[in-house]
Amino acid sequence: MKRGALSLLFFLLAGPLNMACSRFPEVQENKLLADDKLNDSAPRLEPLSKYGNPPFYEVNGQRYYTRRSSGGYKEKGIASWYGSKFHGRRTSSGEIYDMHAMTAAHRSLPLPCYVTVTNLSNKRQIIVRVNDRGPFHSNRIIDLSYAAAVKLGLDRQGTGLVEVRAIEPKPALNRTVDVSENEFYLQVGAFQNPRSAEQLQKRLRSTIDAEVKVSPLPTQQAPFYRVRVGPLLNVETLDNIAKRLTELGFPHPIVVH
Question: According to the UniProt entry, where is the signal peptide (predicted)?
Fold first, then answer.
């Protein structure tokens, strides 16, 4: 089996887990998996994962630095893939690895993010969601899920030369619409503790030239308190505020209407 990604590293750093006696189901690669039935991941704005995004981490004595944003990332190199040995295990982001999903592992890109991967030998192109860390071979730049490898045509040989280019999802706004008739907000966070929401509100108010509101969202359990910047009455203002939020460490605000 190909070189796998780093699983559970950041959970192990956060707290002790007894993995010595754990068993995971062994799933055989489906050799009949049809690449034309596999759908690309659909890029969307997402907050950074709670796990897997420290400023840096170390594996086998090598230190790796993580990026706060995927903006502008583009690289050519060797891709590999990982499959049944890691199927059902936790990824570095805390999600469960599914070898049949269109995902990937990367050493430095923020988790999660989306990238386009192009097989330079056959020109096949896919979009995957990066939610894991790896590969840790010095000559490889990305580890693909088994499904992604099949669709890209790399499952048989195991590795291949690719180009990886980051995708930055944009707010789905129709720029021909007069948004001044509507109210758009950038949601920065949601908290169960109202004091946490108020602290973030206070911080943003001191650094952003826009109104910052805390609005409760009732649920069947405890309510959530959403921190939103706005209303923002035009796309230019929204883009400027989103850029400022990225500079402050909030790269993936959610556009709400």
Answer: 1-19
